[in-house]
UniProtKB/TrEMBL annotation:
PROSITE patterns found in the cross-reference section: DAD
Alphabetical keyword list: DNA-binding, Sigma factor, Transcription, Transcription regulation
Family classification: Belongs to the sigma-70 factor family. ECF subfamily.
Descriptive protein name: RNA polymerase sigma factor SigM
Originating species: Kineococcus mangrovi
Top-level taxonomic group: Bacteria
SUPFAM superfamilies: Sigma2 domain of RNA polymerase sigma factors (SSF88946), Sigma3 and sigma4 domains of RNA polymerase sigma factors (SSF88659)
């Protein structure tokens, strides 16, 4: 009895030994806890990518929520051709870009207004990691974040994945659903644009 209990749901709540792919398959098979474990494992990272991509905490939170609902509903279509993390990143980035397109017709609040105090922890994204201590490092970080927000969504998403989260170009291409060459091109153009924005008088 005790031995059986040690192997039951209570044992997997703290640290589920199943892989991400096994959890997705278990969710599709009807396990009510499996997808929640996937979310617990990756939510911080997905939130950080969403925050970087949108530049707005509320938009990032909404995008992650939209993405997780989409992933929950589309789990039966996951075939394991890529890692679960790649699949989730693709859904989150697409949700961010969809929201960005929808709000393009209305003004975007300055990114500085979205900078948090750091109470939620620095792992939730660069904007949350910026604190008002007047040091040159923080000022430079804020300049980069503000300049990034001014790039086209496609370039921003590529740079966030490749340059800021060290996602390999091939994996970023899978996430964004484009060719490897397209990711390289977007990164190249984005870097040039950032250099101009961060140059003397550029980031105004």
């Amino acid at each position: 009895m005790t031995g059986a209990g040690a192997q039951g749901p209570a044992a997997t709540t703290a640290e589920d030994p199943r892989t991400d792919a096994e959890l997705v398959a278990a969710h599709v098979a009807g396990d009510p806890e499996a997808f929640g474990e996937v979310v617990r494992r990756h939510r911080d990272r997905l939130w950080a990518v969403a925050l970087r991509t949108t530049g707005d905490r509320e938009e990032a939170a909404d995008a992650v929520q939209d993405a997780l609902v989409s992933a929950l509903r589309a789990a039966d279509r996951f075939r394991g051709d890529s890692a679960v993390t790649t699949w989730l990143h693709r859904i989150v980035v697409n949700a961010c870009l969809d929201r960005a397109r929808r709000r393009a017709v209305r003004p975007t609040r300055p990114l500085e207004e979205e900078v948090g105090s750091g109470e939620d922890g620095v792992r939730t994204g660069a904007a949350l990691a910026v604190v008002d201590d007047d040091t040159p490092h923080v000022e430079a970080q804020l300049d980069v974040t503000a300049a990034l927000a001014r790039l086209p969504e496609a370039q921003r998403a590529a740079l966030v994945l490749v340059d800021m989260y060290d996602v390999p170009v091939a994996e970023a291409a899978q996430v964004l659903g484009v060719a490897v060459g397209t990711v390289k091109s977007r990164c190249s153009r984005g870097r040039l644009a950032l250099a101009e924005l961060l140059g003397p008088g550029g980031n105004r």
